[in-house]
Predict the 3D structure of the following.
Amino acid sequence: MATEEINNTQGLHASQQASLPDYPQMIMDAIEALNEKEGSNMTSISKHMESTHSDLPENHSTLLSHHLSLMKQSGELLMSKNNYMKPDPIPQPKRGRGRPPKPKAPLPPDAPVSPPRPRGRPPKPKDLLAPPKPKTPVSTGRPRGRPPKKAKTDTDTDTDTDTAPPPPPGVKRGRGRPPKV
């Protein structure tokens, strides 16, 4: 019982069932008759149905909303800004992402069609008559990367004459930058 769909003629007497068409048919007739550019909302569809069919059931508004939602889900109707409309019979193709390509000039029928260019930088032209070059490693005599640190030895500190002599033992320097002389 709970899984059954709402019948089109639920709540109607036997005499009313025979005279009323199906709700989807009445909805499509109302949308076609109203012929609004932006589509027809539920109240205008309901008013049109009430004016054309005087013997609608008491639960007409719930049946109408139910059938409108079913038709919307099945694709029989489109909903735009709370208005229902019939879908276009010829849908427009969806445009892809990005800028569309420029239109190309048509080629004459006798012109040869060249294959498309490959991607990337074109290779250098090769001289077929020249002998192949021998592969030599490109090196400058030094190994790649940062050179390793040299270990300090006692002999290295004795030979340094480039450094300043140590200050005299009795004079102590003050803190900070010395004044200009």
Remarks:
- Residues 60-74 form the longest helix (15 residues).
- The helical segments are 14-19, 23-34, 42-52, 60-74, 154-158.
- Residues 157 and 163 are 10 Å apart (CA to CA).
- The beta strands are 78-80, 83-85.
